[in-house]
Each structure stands twice: as C-alpha cells, then as structure tokens.
Design goal:
Length: about 120
C-alpha cells in the first residue's frame, strides 16, 4: 500500500493506493473508489481544510465583520512606514537580485527606519 498527499480545492487529502490483494483484509474497503478495469484501489481521506495560499486566507479573514474592523486599523499603523521607506528612503525597487540579497536589503532599510525613530523619539 502506498500513500501520498493530494489536494482538491482547499482540502488536503491522504490518498491511499493499494493492490487488490491488500483489500481483502481492509476494514474500510467499501469506501474505496473502485474501477472494474483496474486492479488498483484508491481511497482519499480528508486531512484538514487548510488554505492553499496566504492570499485566500487573508480574503477569508477580511470578509468577516471583525476582519474589516481590524484591517481598518492597519492604515494609520503600517502604511506610514511603507510611505517613509518609499518616499524618503527612495525604496521604489530593490537594486539587488536573489531572495537572500533582497531580504538583506529589506532588513537594512527596516533597521535604518527603526534607528531613525529611536534618534527622533528616544527609547520607549
């Protein structure tokens, strides 16, 4: 018997594939998808309903009343930071290539932003 992970839509499955001789001793053999033309039997057991992408997960979260309220609070907290980095620090696009280099460049800009805040407003 072999098992592998599969997905249909947002639902993840464990898909089992067995030979005909394995089915004789199986307790859940009536749940298998059986085809007369093949000797292999298949069974898909749902593991959990997980979002495939972060985009879909965020859409689900924002579509609730609480999600809209919380997301509305993001504007005065997060957006000025991105505006500062984009306008005043001129971070319109990354000048390096590759995930590691871009991540380092992003972290350096964030560090500069935080140091500037400490210099202007002091420690908490």
């Amino acid at each position: 018997m072999r098992a592998r992970k599969a997905r249909i839509g947002d639902i993840y499955f464990r898909r089992y594939e067995a030979e005909e001789r394995d089915c004789a001793i199986c307790s859940i053999r009536e749940k298998c998808l059986e085809s007369r033309a093949t000797k292999r039997k298949h069974l898909a057991v749902a593991l959990s309903e997980q979002p495939i992408s972060l985009h879909r997960a965020m859409m689900k979260k924002i579509d609730t009343e609480e999600g809209r309220r919380v997301y509305g609070l993001r504007l005065p907290i997060v957006e000025p930071i991105f505006a500062n980095l984009r306008i005043h620090k001129r971070l319109d696009r990354f000048t390096l290539r590759g995930k590691i280099k871009v991540n380092i460049q992003w972290l350096l800009y964030c560090m500069v932003h935080n140091i500037e805040k400490i210099a202007n407003y002091g420690y908490a």
